[in-house]
Amino acid sequence: MGILNNRQFEGYTGKIGGTVAYKLMGKEVLRIIGKTNKPPTVNQLANRMKMALIIEFLKPITEFINIGFGVNAAKAGMYPHNLAVSFNKKHALKGNYPNIAINYSKVLVAAGNLLPAQNAAVEQITEGLNFTWNAAIAMEWPEREDLTLLLVYFPSLKKAVYIMGTAKRYWGTAVMPIDPVYANQYMETYISFVSIDNKAAANSVYTGALNAP
Fold it and tell me: Would you say 65 and 81 are in contact if contact means Cβ atoms under 8 Å apart?
């Protein structure tokens, strides 16, 4: 991959012979289109499977990822989705090809420098899910005003629901409504925080599985 500095290609996107030009983070990029007739190796097949698994997991939570990874992505000059893919592909998979699977306890759906949720837990209640965490009495402003990011993923359905900004860190509890239709489904759950100005986030915390098969 190369960055185009020659003005003769400025503004051009599309194929140029054996290359393709496109814009990435405001820069014009030229990439060679590779061709091969060789069958893929096991490592290549494994890499493709890993990528497919992570992309499938992240697909229903794009908006959440944009908030959760937004600040770190901007610092790294990347898109939030790409940063989330990069981290989780490296850290949140288990097994060997062709038996690779997501290790939900290692997944990050948000990342940043804020204090993560301490001793976070979740329980199923009539209204949905009740998330709890330690909220120190002496917590100072603005940390105490951080807003919750709550996410539930349904592996069997390949769907997710999430809710953002409905509770403050110092409350120590937040309820996430769940449609009764999904109440008995297998769920994987996560909590994080974002600052009130959306300029900082916390590493998400895995709060466990519910109704696991």
Answer: yes
Q: Is 12 helix (H, G, I), strand (E, B) or coil?
A: coil
Residue 17 has pLDDT above 90, yes or no: no
Query: Ramachandran region of residue 102, left (φ > 0), alpha (ψ -120 to 50) or beta?
Result: beta
* CA-based nearest residue to 65, from 83, 52, 78: 83
Report phi then psi at 202, rounded to 5: -110, 155
pTM of the model: 0.84
Give the domain ranges of the chain. Answer: 2-32, 42-210
Task: Name the residue with tokens 């996107």.
Answer: 13
Which class for 184: exposed (0-12), middle (13-18), buried (19 or more C-beta within 10 A)? exposed
- 């610092």: which residue's tokens? 75
Class of domain 42-210: mainly beta
- E strands, 26-120, where? 27-32, 93-94, 101-102
pLDDT, residue 38, reads: 86
Tell me what the mean pLDDT of segment 28-48 comes to.
Answer: 80
